[in-house]
Design brief:
The chain is 40% helix and 15% strand. With 137 residues, it is of the alpha+beta class. Helix 3 crosses helix 4. The longest helix is centred in the last third of the chain and has 11 residues. The protein is globular, with a radius of gyration of 14 Å. Bound molecules: adenosine-5'-triphosphate. Adenosine-5'-triphosphate binds next to helix 4 and strand 4. The site of adenosine-5'-triphosphate (ATP) has 11 residues, from helix 4 and strand 4. Belongs to the NDK family. InterPro entries: NDK-like_dom, NDK-like_dom_sf, Nucleoside_diP_kinase.
Length: 137
Amino acid sequence: SNKTFTMVKPHAVADNNIGGIIQMIETAGFRIVAMKKVLLTSENAGKFYEVHKERPFYAELCETMSAGPIIPMILEKENAVADFRALIGSTDPADAAEGTIRKKYAKSKGENAVHGSDSDENAQIESSFFFSGIEQF
Ligand code: ATP
C-alpha cells in the first residue's frame, strides 16, 4: 500500500515539536492525507494498543499516550509503511540511527516521539480508529 498511520506522541506535542516532526516527514517525501489533534482517555489508548495488552509496559503505554493531546496523521508515499519505519528509527532512542525522528525527538522507549504502523493491515485499522472516510483524501 502507499499509506501509513502515525501519531505525534504527547511529550513531543507538549515540547512544541509538532512542526519539527512534520518538517522531517514532509522532507522525506510523505504527503499528509489526514491530520487532527486528539486527547485520548487511558481507556481509548488501551483500545488502540489492545494488541500489546499482555506486554509488561501496557499500563505505562496507556498512561503515556493519554498524558496530553496527540496528533494522529495518515501519510502517503510509495512503500509508506517500511519507509516510515526507517524514517522514525528504533523504538529505543539509544538505538535510533542518525537522521531519524526518534534520534532527534525521542526521550525514552515510552516517550519515543512518534508511532508508526508496522504493516499495511495495521495502518488501515489504525487509520480507521481516528479518521472517517470523508477525512481521508
Ligand atoms: P510503534 O508501534 O509505536 O511504532 P514500535 O513498533 O517501535 O512502536 P512496539 O514494540 O510495537 O514498538 O511497542 C509499541 C510502543 O510501546 C512503543 O512505541 C513504545 O512507546 C512502547 N514501548 C515499547 N517497549 C517499551 C518498554 N520497554 N517500555 C516502555 N514503553 C515501551
